[in-house]
Amino acid sequence: MLRSLKPLDPLEIQILDAQGCVLVEDVTVATPLPPFDNSSMDGYAVRAADVEGASEEHPAVLTVVGDVAAGSGELPEVGPGQCVRIMTGAPVPPGAEAVVPVEWTDGGTGSGPVTTMPAYSGAPEGATGEVRVFRAAESGAHIRLLGSDVRPGQLALEKGTVLGPAQIGLLAAVGRSRVLVRPRPRVVVISTGSELVQPGEEIGPGRIADSNSFTLTAAARDAGAEAYRVGAVPDDAARLTDTIEDQLVRADLLVTSGGVSVGAYDVVKEVFEQLGSVRFRKLAMQPGKPQGFGRIGPDGTPLCALPGNPVSAYVSFELFVRPAIRRLMGLEPAHRPVVSAKLTDGIGRSPAGRRQFLRGRYDERTGEISPVGRSGSHLVAALARANALIVVPEDTTSVEAGAQVDVVLLT
Prior knowledge:
Elements: E1 11-14, E2 22-23, E3 27-28, E4 38-39, E5 43-46, E6 60-68, E7 82-86, E8 98-101, E9 130-133, E10 143-144, E11 155-157, H1 165-173, E12 178-182, E13 186-192, E14 196-197, E15 208-209, H2 212-222, E16 226-233, H3 237-247, E17 253-257, H4 268-275, E18 276-282, E19 285-286, E20 290-296, E21 301-306, H5 310-329, E22 338-343, E23 355-363, E24 368-371, H6 380-385, E25 388-392, E26 404-409
Parallel strand pairs: 6-7, 13-16, 13-17, 14-15, 17-21, 19-23, 22-24
Antiparallel strand pairs: 1-12, 2-12, 3-11, 4-10, 5-7, 5-8, 6-9, 18-20, 20-21, 22-26, 23-24, 23-25, 25-26
Helix pairs in contact: 2-5, 3-4
C-alpha cells in the first residue's frame, strides 16, 4: 500500500489554512525577532547607575519625563536622574539601560511599593513628577533585546515540520503570510450496510446504529486528514456506485467499511470491480481478516476497503489507513510507535497462524499493559477504554501474565 502512494503535491496557502499541514520548505528569518529592544515589564525605564544601591530605606528618586506605550514611535530620551514610564512590549527609549518593574517603585504616589500603575487615561499626571525606586536594576534587566529570539538568516522552521498553533504564530511573527506545505489529505468515509441507522433514529428489529462512519472520520481527522463523513449506504450496488462517483471529486483517499467478506449481500466487491482495480485479501490477523486496497475512478483515487465489525474497522484503520494518510502527508514514520510492556493478565487463547491485536490499557509510568474486554470484534465499549493494542504473534497461542509483549500505542 505505502509503496503505491506518494505524498500530495505542495501548495502555497495562507498560514491559518496551513494548520496541520506539513512544511515542505525551510523558513528562514528575514528580520530580527524581536525587531527592537523592548520592555518585558510594566514599570520605569532607567539608567542603571541612577538606581544603584536603591532600597526601601534609601530609595532612588528619579524625575519622570514621559510615557512609552507599546507601539510608540517618538521616544523621550532618558538622561541622568531621569526615567520614563514604560509598558510591556514598548520600545526602550534612548539612554535607558534597564527597566524596574512598577512593583519596585511607589508609582509616583510618594508612599511605599505599589502593585500597579494607574491608567494613563485616568491619571496622565503619572507620566510626570517624581518616582521613588526601592530596588537596584542591572544593565539589561527586564529588556528583551533585538534579535534575542531569532536573528536574520537563522532557521525558524525546518522542512517536514507539522504546523500547529505555535508554528503558525512564529510564521506570523517573522512576517510570513503564506507558506508552502503539503495539504492535509481529503479523506471520504463511507459505511455500507442496509442494517445501519443514524444515531438518534429509532433502531428497529435487525438494525444497529452506524458507528463506523463516525469512528473512522474522527480517526482520519486525528491522523491529520481533512475528513468527510458520508454515512451509511444500503446494500444496493446502484446506490453505492452513485455515492462513490459523487464523492470522488473531493477525495484524495476513500475509506469504506463493510461488505468485504463473502456474504451474498456484500456488494462492495461488485461495485469496486466496475469502478477500478481493487484487490481483496484475507490477512493472517485478528480482528480485520478481510481487507481491500486499490484505485478507482478516472483519477485512480486510492481506496481502503475495511471490514464492517466496529473493532475490526478501527484496528484496520490504525494498521493500514493511518499510515496511508501519513504517507500522503509526506510524514515519517508512517506507523504508530511500538513499545515493549509487561502484561498484567494472561491471554488464555490466541488463534494459531494469525497475529492478534487485543485492546489494552497501557500505563507509561509502570510500563505495564492490561487487556481491556474480550477479543470480540463487536465490543465497542472495550475499544473506547483502550489506549493501545497488544500484539500477539502468529506462532503464539497463549501468553502468561508478566510476559513482555509488543504494544502499539494509540495516543
